[in-house]
Amino acid sequence: MYCLLKCAPLILAVAVCHGWLFGDFVEKQKELDEISLWPLPQKFQSSAVAFKLSPASFQIVHAKQSSAGPSCSILVNAFRRYFEYMFGDLKKHEKSRNKVYDSDLVELQVWITSADPQCDGYPSLQSDESYELSVDKPSAVLKAANVWGALRGLETFSQLVYKDDYGANNINKTEISDFPRFAHRGILLDSSRHFLPLKVILANLEAMAMNKFNVFHWHIVDDPSFPYMSRTFPDLSQKGAYHPFTHVYTPSDVKMVIEFARMRGIRVIPEFDTPGHTQSWGNGIKDLLTPCYSGSSPSGTFGPVNPILNSSYDFMTQFFKEISTVFPDAYIHLGGDEVDFSCWKSNPDIQKFMAQQGFGTDYSKLESFYIQRLLDIVTATKKGYMVWQEVFDNGVKLKDDTVVEVWIGNKMEEELQNVTGAGFTTILSAPWYLDYISYGQDWQRYYKVEPLNFPGTDAQKKLVIGGEACLWGEYVDATNLTPRLWPRASAVAERLWSDKSVTDVGNAYNRLAQHRCRMVRRGIPAEPLFVGHCRQEYMGL
Amino acid sequence: MYCLLKCAPLILAVAVCHGWLFGDFVEKQKELDEISLWPLPQKFQSSAVAFKLSPASFQIVHAKQSSAGPSCSILVNAFRRYFEYMFGDLKKHEKSRNKVYDSDLVELQVWITSADPQCDGYPSLQSDESYELSVDKPSAVLKAANVWGALRGLETFSQLVYKDDYGANNINKTEISDFPRFAHRGILLDSSRHFLPLKVILANLEAMAMNKFNVFHWHIVDDPSFPYMSRTFPDLSQKGAYHPFTHVYTPSDVKMVIEFARMRGIRVIPEFDTPGHTQSWGNGIKDLLTPCYSGSSPSGTFGPVNPILNSSYDFMTQFFKEISTVFPDAYIHLGGDEVDFSCWKSNPDIQKFMAQQGFGTDYSKLESFYIQRLLDIVTATKKGYMVWQEVFDNGVKLKADTQIHVWKERPQYQDEMAKVTAAGFNALLSTPWYLNRISYGQDWVNVYKADPQNFTGTDAQKKLVIGGEACLWGEYVDATNLTPRLWPRASAVAERLWSDKSVTDVGNAYNRLAQHRCRMVRRGIPAEPLFVGHCRQEYMGL
User: How sure is the predictor about B48, in pLDDT bands with cuts at 50, 70 and 90?
Assistant: First the structure.
């Protein structure tokens, strides 16, 4: 595709034409401006009137009426970030212009309307991310109830700025009223199958903000390694990480991730998956895992968490007490997926316990027994929990506010129907396993998914609170994670933010091609959609 | 997989154990040392005796008997490069050690044996890349006929060095005699569908050298853009590149690529594909492309190069005269694939010409007519040529030293390889190695299993297989994702083309390749993981 913006400004009005992939010219002003926006705002109006922005004089400021001021670090950091995104690549000499012209937009006023701007808070499932943006001479105004909406509006504002043929920054007269379709818009990264250096996680949080994602689902530990450094149980990472110093997340690293995410309105939900997917836990905690038997003697291998020992629950109580203080979000993801029963079946002590409890040979009852006790433990920490769908499928008794994550592709609609039919909130990730790659433009498949496309009442549909794009770690690490995730995850971002009616793949292609070039310009190695170029190609390797 | 090398050195001998993916211990010394080598050398012997290398005192030097000396820039640059690969990540304080111990390897002597070391030459299809490496106290000796073999041997030497638990550099007593199975081991990169910044091309040349690849097949122009800046026809890139200044390769850029490649024993073979795949050429050269017709009037679109105008051949004569001087390699790739006949069919002048020539409605005859004249033009520049298989399939008369590049999936490549070699032509295989095609999982395994000589034919036919190329077409890759997509998947091709035919054990290859990809990462190449695991030193970039 041809991303070159060919603009010929004439006094105040601009006559603008784009050369696109198939050589046709976009003439409607609306389409022209939309072209740069991702995800598409809910309500959008613009005119052909363009204003110039001078990096030397343009400012992002707190509106006089705003409840937030210079001490609001979330906003102050965001002002700097977006100023750099918009003007960072300007040549020095262009900064010498000081005189303000009539055609200039001199400032963006950010107006926080509610009494508590939440400058020092954390984003939550209930956060109001809506905003209103009005771009007109001499000032643009961004109005939001609190900082979370302001962050989304700043991203939109930065996407409206474009360069004309002379390299000058322009923005068109615009009115936007915007809000997310779904409240939970997440990315799952897996730091166990491959260790992800902090730098990689932070870069992806930046990219998430560019796409208005608001949840980082941190699948932090799993079978292969345990990089989370626990204060209470240091042996977990000491003995369970790939390397005890170089391949771990220290308490300070975790804090930094949480703060970096907070500054971008992103929640950090850690996942500590049990009772399966816990091989690496066993290295540091004696007797935590079930010893598997070969015939009548232990085989030396281990299975899921041992559900028949009180020591297992004592451990979980202490461990999740720590987790609940380290991670400020109201939710913890408890996993609960893919429990392999073969080891439990082989163990004579487990068999005895099954008989005592009257479980017969139904090992899913034993799994439920474990999960039930775990949920009680976590509930005591005042946290809500998310679980993978198996926990619901197995009939475990769940708190009302439990979020059930649907991940199994087969019979996905039926599962959504069942989960919401039972009154639980749910998020969808089954169609968005981005670790599965194939040749060609697979982003279209992710884009075409409609999360509410299942049989159910309106009340049921309302229980779908969002979705997540999952990038499991078998085949990705610092070398290839970022270009594999972006812009494929951007397709999910628009599906979860924009109106249900935004489904035109051709229009999306044009906008997404521009958007990926913008990410590249901002330093994110987002891979190409197809043949074409960016005005500024990726400068890294 | 667990890449951690756990080594406990005891006086001179080392008792070494590796913890691997499935927890079993590798005990045979041979396997232990092989583990770090990629591609596997032809003959290899090592013992448990280990020597220490001190970065402060170890040197790579010209052997006294060597025909090359300090003025041989290829070697001098290579000495520095491999010294940095081996010791570059050492802490400062470790460099303070000056005393030479009995257990030390103090130097690697590089001994070029032939009268002409080819220090100022270019690698060629005939280059002798064989070498012999002997690692023993106090000096290791690398013996090669010329610099090309020495470069391969230096890579192998650097792969033999490992760190023990204390961070000290060790190398085991080793004898290696090595040579490539195939003479042409290439990587195709496509700088037309996406422009590839120079940095990306150079990084991939580095990675190629780490894998003993020796041909960079530069698919430099195609339909979408023409980034090659021609001195003779500047309008080609001025009007045909994505951008006339930022998305072009200047003459200086091209020179730099060729020199950077030469220093690593890599040939640069440019491809200027005609008569199809030439949309971007038409922007800069009037009347070069065939005007397509819609009914009785021109539709405004254009097809392949116009084969019925003398001006087309005049252009090609001048253009390839330039190309033949800019690129020193003896071969040029002339393309010739996927010619779409629909535009030719629509054009009344072409129809008339077809009738005059007695071609009937067989447009492949017109294609052959064009190619035939093009080959004559290129032959006059004293260059040899490579072509995609269609040119052979269409029965164009070819010079005896033409190389036929097999890429199609149908008919299956084994049949095509048999046909091409039966006709007496050199054949190159790419079909199983289109690395732009991706799928979930460890697709390197199938890449690894393909063998270019796996077809029915005589020994003489097999000998006509000169190698193969891994192709990374550019539809879906650019600077953001090209390097991790190519490596280490292309490494699987590297071993198939270098190592002995019998080297086919996928499990053994997995262990070595996992180590090799971590080595590439350590050297700054973002080579993606094979599967779950880690590198001692993870990639530091983004």
Answer: confident
For residue A62, list its beta bridge partners. Answer: A110
CA-closest candidate to residue A452, choices A427, A423, A488: A427
**Structure tokens given for A406:** 């649907």
Q: What's the CA gap between B144 and B151, in Å, rounded?
A: 9
Which residues in B lie closer than 8 A to residue A535 (C-beta atoms)? 243, 246
Residue type at position B503: V
- Sketch out chain B's domains with CATH numbers: 43-178 (3.30.379.10), 187-504 (3.20.20.80)
Q: Which helix (H) or strand (E) holds B488?
A: none
Angle, helix B310-326 to helix B363-379, in steps of 10 degrees: 40
Picking from A105, A112, A104, the residue whose alpha carbon sits closest to that of residue A62 is A112
**Is residue A249 within 8 Å of residue A228, measured between CB atoms?**
yes
* Residues belonging to chain A: 541
Share of chain A above pLDDT 90, in %: 86
Q: What are phi and psi of A29, to 5 degrees?
A: -55, -40
Query: From the list A243, A480, A538, which residue is nearest B479 (CB)?
Result: A538
Asked if B400 contacts B421 with a C-beta cutoff of 8 angstroms, the reply is no
Count the alpha carbons within 13 Å of B31 in the hemisphere toward its beta carbon. Answer: 14
Beta strands per DSSP E along A42-138: 43-53, 59-62, 107-112, 131-135
At B521, the amino acid letter reads: V
For residues A16 and B316, give the distance between their C-alpha atoms in angstroms, rounded to a whole number: 39
Positions of chain A with pLDDT under 50: 1-31, 93
Residue B291 has which token pair?
């005007």
CA nearest neighbour of B213 among B472, B439, B393, B511? B472
pLDDT of residue B365: 93
- Residue B137 has a CB neighbour count (10 Å cut-off) of 14
Q: Is B338 a catalytic residue?
A: yes
> What predicted TM-score, i.e. pTM, was given to this entire model?
0.91
Could you read off the pLDDT of A322-366 as tens digits, one per residue?
999 999 999 999 999 999 999 999 999 999 999 999 999 999 999
Residue A18 distance to chain B (closest CA, Å):
14
Is B477 in contact with A528 (Cβ distance < 8 A)?
yes
- Residue B329 to residues A351, A495, B216, B385, B494, Cα–Cα distance (Å): 73, 52, 11, 10, 21
**Nearest CB to B527 within list A476, A479, A527:** A479
Cβ–Cβ below 8 Å for B541 and A539: no
Q: How many CB atoms lie within 10 A of CB B93?
A: 7
Q: Are B389 and B338 spatial neighbours (Cβ–Cβ below 8 Å)?
A: no
Work out the number of other CB atoms within 10 angstroms of the CB of residue B97: 15
How near does any CA of chain B get to the CA of A2, in Å?
8
Number of helices (H) and strands (E), helices first, in chain B?
Answer: 18, 19
